[in-house]
Design goal:
single chain, 446 residues, alpha/beta, Rossmann fold, 2 domains, six-stranded parallel β-sheet, 41% helix
């Protein structure tokens, strides 16, 4: 098929490239000429494992193109994909201005009957609004909901081996077209969910909020473990072995971040308020996530006897491994709080360093991991990159400085290090939800 994807951001770039690799001819459109110029030169503006090679292969194959203007023959495309951002407004509700702007563009350029596929995460009823917007088009256009479920750091695999593909369409013709579009993925059974547009739109919000709730709940349990002397590792294992619950998304940590969970949880809560339905669990998940950031800052401050006039090093500035995305990263919240309390903050990340430094000039970002430790009183591990999993603790000890006569401390906000190895190097260890006076030496099982 001939396809146009609007938006060369994370979702659009992965989706458009993936579709081209399935054999479709894809034009990726973006209003940012700088971004398009980078892509045409073979440069990828985001870090995502495997994506650069995929882009280059399909560019060479003549299936993937980049542009800031829709020209023939793509004004006669079989489908137009909307994959632009829907950032939260002041009340948490999704801003749909970019989605509607794309709808207006499609109405102007489309010269033959086509399907308009909404990949962006949008509130229930948005497809209906887009359909109304397309009424001025000169050709029949049907709007279909097809939300994305791409995990940053593993998005290429998620595209080609998805847990499920959700399609919300009204006509059988549109449903059949999407079946043919994704036919190379060999979806079967429940992996292809066919429903109506409104249900499809809500599935995305419900999915992300459900996962965020699990994370927030376990983070609250980690705080309770600190207060009671219980062990979050034992709690996680005991809870996760229940087949009704399962083991995924039960790890305590510094809180969730990224482009999806924070935004989608708030958007679902706002959607509920708009329709007179209070989504209490979504509201609570958001509050718990905000409180976890404060809890972590307090943990660091307690570990070194106050942070004023001291230096704190952060390892991991991206919101998760295998990405350079810092949106809503726990590192941003922690750095801001520590600086407000009088600390100096220095950080390192294998990929997100430049992005973090640009957005947070008050934080010194080092190119090398151990260089970030020089003269610091504590090291906080925030993102579990592979390069951080088995560090040289003796080298860490050399770089850090004692605090009030006590050994430097490592705050393991991901619970991936063995306390005995840390202590053997002459350092103090503090995990999340692990009582410091009776730390069992166990692997993280992550």
């Amino acid at each position: 098929m001939r396809l146009v994807v609007f938006g060369a951001g994370y979702v659009g770039l992965v989706t458009g490239t993936g579709l081209s690799d399935l054999g479709h001819e894809v034009l990726l459109y973006d209003i940012d000429p700088g971004r398009i110029a980078m892509l045409e030169e073979g440069k990828v503006p985001i870090y995502e494992p495997g994506l650069a090679d995929l882009i280059h292969r399909n560019q060479r194959g003549g299936r993937l193109h980049f542009t800031t203007k829709i020209t023939p023959p793509f004004d006669e495309a079989d489908a137009y994909f909307i994959a632009v951002g829907t950032p939260p407004g002041p009340d948490g509700a999704a801003d749909l201005s970019a989605v509607m702007a794309v709808a207006d563009t499609i109405a102007e350029v489309a010269k033959r009957q086509a399907v308009v596929v909404v990949k962006s995460t949008v509130p229930v009823g948005t497809c209906d609004k887009v359909q109304e917007r397309l009424a001025k088009a000169k050709v029949p256009l049907e709007v279909v909901s097809n939300p994305e479920f791409l995990k940053e750091g593993d998005a290429v695999s998620d595209f080609f081996k998805p847990d499920r593909v959700v399609v919300g369409a009204r006509s059988e013709e549109a449903r059949q077209m999407l079946r043919e579009l994704y036919a190379p993925l060999q979806l079967s059974g429940e992996r292809l969910v066919i429903t109506d547009p409104r249900s499809s739109e809500l599935i995305k919000y419900a999915s992300n909020t459900m996962l965020a709730i699990r994370i927030s709940f376990m983070n609250e349990m980690s705080r309770l473990c600190h207060a009671t002397g219980a062990d979050i590792h034992a709690v996680r294992l005991g809870v996760g072995t229940d087949s009704r619950i399962g083991k995924k998304f039960l790890y305590a940590g510094p809180g969730y971040g990224g482009s999806c969970f924070p935004k989608d949880v708030q958007a679902l809560a706002a959607l509920g308020r708009e329709h007179g339905v209070t989504i209490e669990v979504a509201e609570a998940a958001h509050r718990a996530n905000e409180q976890q950031a404060v809890f972590l800052a307090n943990l660091v401050e307690s570990a070194i006897g106050g942070v004023k006039g001291k230096k704190v090093a952060l390892w991991g500035l991206a919101f998760k491994p295998e990405t350079d995305d810092i949106r809503e990263s726990p590192a941003i919240k922690l750095a801001k709080t520590l600086i407000e309390r009088g600390a100096a903050v220095v950080g390192h990340d294998p990929e997100a360093g430049p992005n973090f430094a640009k957005a947070n000039p008050q934080v010194t970002v080092k190119e090398r991991d151990y260089d970030a430790l020089d003269g610091a009183h504590a090291l906080v591990l925030l993102t579990e990159w592979r390069s951080y999993r088995a560090p040289n603790f003796a080298e860490i000890k050399k770089r850090l400085v004692p605090t009030n006569g006590n050994a430097p401390v490592l705050v393991d906000a991901r619970n991936i290090w063995r306390p005995s190895e840390v202590q053997k190097a002459g350092l103090r260890y503090q995990g999340i939800g692990v009582a410091t006076n009776r730390m069992a030496d166990r692997p993280s099982q992550r």
